[in-house]
Structures are given as C-alpha cells and as structure tokens.
Design a protein that fits this description.
It is built from five helices and six strands, in the order βββαααβαβαβ. The chain is an alpha+beta fold. The longest helix has 14 residues. The radius of gyration is 17 Å and the shape is globular. The structure holds magnesium ion (MG).
C-alpha cells in the first residue's frame, strides 16, 4: 500500500554483471567490444566473439530479472554458440528478460583496459548496445593504471549494472 495520493512505484530490480577475456595472439580473432569491431587490435580469447561488454551487460540484465547468468542460457559447451555474435546474444537476453515480466530501464558499462582507446568509438558502441537491449546502454572507458594483468594489457574486463522495472501484468 502506498500513502494516500502517492504514485505507485513499479517494482524495480538492479543487477550487476562482470566479464573478462584475455588477449590472444591468434590473428584470426577480431577484437569486438560493444558490437563494434576494432581492426588492427589483438582479439580476445573466447568461445563466442568474446565481446566482454555485451557479456557483462547481458549478465547484469539476467541478474536483475533473477534469471541466472549468461553461461546457463548460452552454455559454452554448446556448439551453437561457437563464434556467436554477442550482440545477438544480448538481444535474446533482453527478449528473455521481457518474457519474464521485466522491462529493461538502462544499463551502464565500465570497461577496464589499457587498449584500445574507446572514446572514438563510444557512440557507436552505445548505439549498437542500446539497439540490442531496447533501452539506453552507456559505456565508459577506464584504464587500469598499469596495475595487475589488466594494467599490463593482458586482457579486457567490463563491469555493468542494469535496472529493470516490473512490467504491468
Ligand atoms: Mg564473456
């Protein structure tokens, strides 16, 4: 019950996501972050396209909706997801979140890497991620200040938070 005259607040849930992938020297692997390909950069190792930003965003949305994690939905033992386009996975995650009665409100991603420079491609990444989720997705780049494996540019990590609202049923 709400106080008299107060608007009813829809149920809200937050979720967090994290992902990390190591760089590989396999020249066949392209670097894809937020659905954007960075030509001339080393790719990341992984079963899918290793898009750590799309994966963290997907995990945040699944967590917010109480739907588990990306590994349970798209097992890396399933050959169907080998080399998968992670923007497609993120689109499917948003569909599953809505099917469970939750509307994505927004997702915010913090990417931690020494390379590549994200700022020149940030708008492009946000556009692709936002289109996949159907709600605003923002991306920020952070350097690891030469600390640890990320600071030695051995890989890329991403943290994400998502907010979802209960859709009227
Ligand atoms: Mg991943």
């Amino acid at each position: 019950m709400t106080a008299a005259g107060a608007p009813a607040v829809p149920p809200l849930r937050v979720g967090q996501g994290f992902d990390i992938h190591a760089f590989t020297d396999d020249p066949a692997r392209a670097l894809v972050l937020g659905g954007v390909r960075f030509d001339g950069e080393p790719g990341l190792a992984g079963h899918s396209d290793a898009d750590a930003v799309a994966h963290a965003a997907a995990d945040a949305l699944l967590g917010a909706a109480g739907l588990g994690d990306i590994g349970a939905h798209f097992p890396d033992t399933d050959p169907a997801w080998r080399g998968a386009d992670s923007i497609g996975l993120l689109t499917e995650v948003a569909r599953r979140v809505r099917a469970a009665g939750w509307e994505p409100v927004n997702v915010d991603c913090a990417v931690i890497c020494e390379r590549p420079k994200l700022a020149p491609r940030r708008d492009e990444m946000e556009h692709r991620l936002t289109a996949a989720v159907g709600a605003p997705v923002t991306v920020k780049g952070n350097r690891a200040e030469q600390l640890g494996a990320l600071g030695r540019a051995e890989g890329i990590a991403c943290l994400a938070v998502a907010l979802v609202a209960g859709s009227a049923r």
